[in-house]
Amino acid sequence: SGLVEDQVHVDNILIIFFADCGKVAASGVVARW
């Protein structure tokens, strides 16, 4: 595994993490309405 591959792997984790956070945030906003 090279540094570039590791970085891509980390980027994928961050993308998934932020996507999940976005869903939670969106659900929280919808729940407020």
Short description:
The chain is mostly helical and 33 residues long. It has one helix and no strands. The radius of gyration is 14 Å and the shape is rod-shaped.
Total domains: 1
- The helix content, as a percent range, equals over 70%
Estimate the strand proportion: under 5%
N-to-C CA distance = 47 Å
Notes on the structure:
This protein has 33 residues and is an all-alpha fold. The chain has one domain (1-33). Helices cover 91% and strands 0% of the residues. The chain contains 1 helix and no strands. The protein starts with a helix and ends with a helix. The model has no long low-confidence stretch (mean pLDDT 85).
Layout of helices and strands, plus pairs?
Layout: H1 3-32
Task: Considering the chains and any ligands shown, give keywords for the structure.
33 residues, mainly alpha, 1 helix, 91% helix, rod-shaped
